[in-house]
């Protein structure tokens, strides 16, 4: 007998995981349908992708070990990439392939478990932390064809271990190891970005503050038999300072000059993606790009996004060194911008205008 196609409200749909709907072999319900502009996903080799690929290797060495010119060239590439694309794929970041593989592995293993196991870490529809979907968006906004596990990882006293999976057994240790590496890499990148703008190397680290936040979002994108109708994640910019993303398959796209560009698959690379607060701190020089995730009819996809955000309650704003007569202040001082951002995100909008000077 054909099932009546009633469209359930978002609250009820969000109490069910996308992974469960896929197992039931259902067509996506209406609130997930959000697009009709299906574009083909062709697999260009990495060498053909226009997304900048930057080897940070020489920044890991002490300055006496590397010719100064080599460092200047890397900093120029970082500046050019972030001023035009707002992102680059980083290699030579110093995180071992073994650890990157382990992070992909624990993520896959977590989502592959039976639903009862994952629901031990379930969030409520209004919460952020835990396993589930984003909090219910405003009326009329579409839902994402994905499930995720969201965890506060830094500062340490903000961790809620009740949401940290006990299975797979190595989950916690691997996440702790990855967190340490993310701290190191965010320091490295924050310094490099400052130097690339001829600013004091610690200026962004100071703005992020002693209690800067790292949050890990493990995303699971189920296949969808109608990838032309849904999105794994709707178009948005991030509300953090910047975000570091590891993926196993293609699917993520960034928008540049009204065109979507695919982030190519590269198991050793991390995507460094500017978010709104870096656009504010650089007085608009570095761009916080809109990005989205496509669904795929055949394969699933894992990504781990780590959001690096200034400490709670700290005011941030354009660096003085980037403001002068020719380039006036574009943004004012803001604090807890990520909260403002989320309010707009829920309505399908960007929040950057609220920070305009
Ligand atoms: C995000 C995001 C991209 C991805 O979590 O904000 O953009 O590839 N993720 O999952
Ligand atoms: Ni994002």
UniProtKB/TrEMBL annotation:
GO biological process entries: coumarin biosynthetic process; response to molecule of fungal origin
GO MF annotations, alphabetized: 2-oxoglutarate-dependent dioxygenase activity; metal ion binding
Origin species: Coffea arabica (Arabian coffee)
Family listed: Belongs to the iron/ascorbate-dependent oxidoreductase family.
Keyword check for Oxidoreductase: yes
Name of the coding gene: LOC113738812
Domain Fe2OG dioxygenase: from-to ranges: 212-310
Keywords noted in UniProt: Iron, Metal-binding, Oxidoreductase
Keyword Iron attached: yes
InterPro entries assigned to the protein according to its UniProt record, in alphabetical order: DIOX_N, IPNS-like_FE2OG_OXY, IPNS-like_sf, Oxoglu/Fe-dep_dioxygenase_dom, Plant_2OG-oxidoreductases
Pfam family, one: 2OG-FeII_Oxy
Protein name, entry field: Protein SRG1 isoform X1
């Amino acid at each position: 007998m054909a099932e009546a196609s009633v469209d359930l409200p978002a609250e009820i749909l969000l109490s069910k995981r996308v992974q469960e709907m896929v197992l039931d072999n259902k067509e996506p319900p209406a609130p997930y349908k959000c697009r009709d502009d299906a574009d083909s996903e062709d697999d260009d080799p990495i060498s053909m992708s226009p997304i900048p690929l930057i080897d940070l290797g020489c920044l890991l060495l002490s300055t006496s070990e590397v010719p100064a010119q080599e460092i200047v060239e890397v900093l120029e590439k970082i500046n050019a990439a972030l001023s035009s694309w707002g992102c680059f794929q980083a290699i030579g970041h110093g995180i071992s392939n073994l650890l990157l593989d382990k992070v992909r592995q624990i993520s896959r293993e977590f989502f592959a478990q039976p639903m009862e196991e994952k629901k031990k870490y379930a969030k409520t529809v209004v919460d952020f932390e835990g396993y589930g979907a984003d909090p219910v968006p405003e009326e009329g906004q579409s839902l994402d064809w994905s499930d995720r596990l969201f965890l506060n990882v830094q500062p340490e006293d903000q961790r809620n271990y009740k949401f940290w999976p006990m299975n797979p057994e190595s989950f916690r240790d691997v996440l702790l190891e990855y967190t340490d590496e993310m701290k190191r890499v965010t320091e490295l990148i924050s310094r490099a970005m400052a130097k690339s703008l001829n600013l004091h190397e610690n200026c962004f680290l100071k703005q992020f503050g002693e209690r800067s936040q790292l949050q890990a979002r493990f995303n699971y994108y189920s296949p969808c038999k109608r990838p032309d109708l849904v999105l794994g994640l709707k178009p948005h910019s991030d509300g953090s300072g910047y975000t570091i993303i590891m993926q196993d398959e293609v699917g993520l796209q960034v928008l540049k000059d009204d065109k979507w560009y695919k982030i190519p698959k590269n198991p050793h690379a991390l995507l460094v993606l500017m978010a709104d607060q870096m656009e504010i701190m650089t007085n608009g020089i570095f761009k916080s790009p809109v990005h989205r995730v496509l669904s795929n009819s055949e394969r699933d996809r894992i990504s781990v996004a780590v959001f690096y955000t200034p400490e709670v309650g700290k005011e941030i704003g354009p660096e003085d060194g980037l403001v002068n007569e020719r380039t006036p202040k574009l943004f004012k001082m803001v604090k807890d911008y990520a909260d403002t951002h989320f309010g707009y995100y829920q309505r399908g909008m960007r929040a950057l205008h609220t920070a305009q000077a």
